């Protein structure tokens, strides 16, 4: 379990699906929520009362069955929003009258700031049906209308895909708010061969490299110009490890061996 999954603020985000009809989308939504470290999924008046136990929902959850099993069912959006202090209506359709519109990224930042200022608050992302999206009466219960700035010629997203994007943006905003690392650090054994090579190893390799380049007639020792200086800069920037130096010295040995086969008079 990651640090962010233990962070209390991640339990203050609720994803609400209004009148879902496809079990697969509900399962995919549970998976999307869990991958981003959240837990709360709420369904408002689903088409089937057993939608979360449907085989397609379980299959699409792909291991996020704990989120699926803990999904709450509400009779109305009012009931689902009861504990919520800030709600965002996710929709692709603009409204001339209604809450102020924000991009999903702006919305996530507003949500993260809301939780920073009000640690006991609850945030909701509200999504509508596949066919009609959110109705105006549902949108008007939210403080903000948020949208995903997709291709204007084809902005239709599957509801579970839209939820995944919303969950990612919220996760990113919360990680920044909490000053958590964005890159997952996985523990593992550090091999000695992967440690940085010493300057002594690098200089010995460069001497060997110069000999190999001379053996294959790439370097003229009488007119070296700045070739080896540039080579030294190249390998210094690369910050070679012990294993990489050993590998390159093996290349040098092979180059010199091949050169001697072609021209037996070539010196080592």
Task: Determine the fraction of residues in helical runs and give it as a percent range.
Answer: 40-55%
Count of the separate structural domains: 2
| Elements, N to C (H/E) | HEHEHHEHEEHEHEHHHH
Number of helical regions: 11
- Rounded radius of gyration (Å): 30 Å
Give the class-level CATH name of the largest domain. Alpha Beta
**What quaternary form is this?**
single chain
From the helix content, strand content and strand pairing, which structural class follows? alpha/beta
How many beta strands in the DSSP annotation?
7
Largest sheet: 7 strands, parallel
Shape: elongated
**Fourth CATH level, the homologous superfamily of the largest domain:** SPOUT methyltransferase, trefoil knot domain
Mean pLDDT: 89
CATH topology of the largest domain: Alpha/beta knot
Strand percentage lies at 5-15%
Sequence stretches where pLDDT stays below 50 over 5 or more residues: 1-5
Topology:
Elements (H helix, E strand, L loop, with lengths): L2 H4 L6 E6 L4 H13 L4 E5 L10 H7 L3 H5 L2 E3 L2 H4 L5 E5 L10 E3 H14 L5 E5 L8 H4 L4 E4 L11 H19 L21 H17 L11 H12 L3 H21 L6
Parallel strand pairs: 1-2, 1-6, 2-3, 4-6, 4-7, 5-7
Helix pairs in contact: 2-3, 2-8, 6-8, 9-11
Structure description:
The protein has 268 residues and is of the alpha/beta class. It has 2 domains: 175 residues, SPOUT methyltransferase, trefoil knot domain (Alpha/beta knot, 3-Layer(aba) Sandwich); 71 residues, Helicase, Ruva Protein, domain 3 (Orthogonal Bundle), CATH 1.10.8.590. It has 11 helices and 7 strands. The radius of gyration is 30 Å and the shape is elongated.
């Amino acid at each position: 379990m990651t640090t962010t999954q233990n962070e209390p603020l991640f339990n203050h985000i609720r994803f609400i699906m209004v009148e879902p009809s496809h079990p697969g989308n509900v399962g995919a939504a549970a998976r999307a929520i869990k991958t981003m470290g959240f837990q709360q999924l709420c369904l408002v008046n689903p088409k089937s009362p057993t939608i979360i136990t449907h085989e397609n929902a379980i299959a699409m959850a792909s291991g996020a069955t704990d989120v699926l099993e803990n999904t709450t069912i509400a009779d109305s959006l009012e009931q689902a929003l009861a504990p919520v202090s800030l709600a965002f209506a996710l929709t692709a359709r603009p409204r001339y009258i209604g809450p102020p519109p924000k991009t999903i990224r702006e919305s996530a930042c507003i949500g993260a700031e809301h939780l920073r200022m009000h640690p006991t608050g609850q945030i909701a992302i509200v999504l509508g049906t596949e066919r009609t999206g959110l109705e105006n009466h549902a949108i008007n219960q939210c403080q903000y209308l948020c949208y995903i700035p997709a291709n204007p010629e084809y902005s239709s997203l599957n509801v579970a895909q839209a939820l995944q994007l919303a969950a990612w943006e919220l996760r990113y905003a919360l990680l920044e708010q909490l000053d958590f690392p964005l890159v997952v650090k996985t523990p593992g054994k550090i091999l000695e061969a992967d440690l940085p090579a010493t300057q002594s190893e690098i200089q010995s390799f460069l001497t060997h490299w110069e000999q190999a380049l001379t053996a294959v007639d790439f370097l003229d020792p009488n007119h070296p110009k700045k070739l080896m200086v540039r080579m030294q800069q190249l390998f210094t920037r690369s910050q070679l490890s012990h294993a990489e130096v050993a590998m390159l010295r093996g290349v040098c040995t092979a180059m010199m061996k091949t050169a001697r086969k072609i021209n037996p008079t070539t010196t080592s």
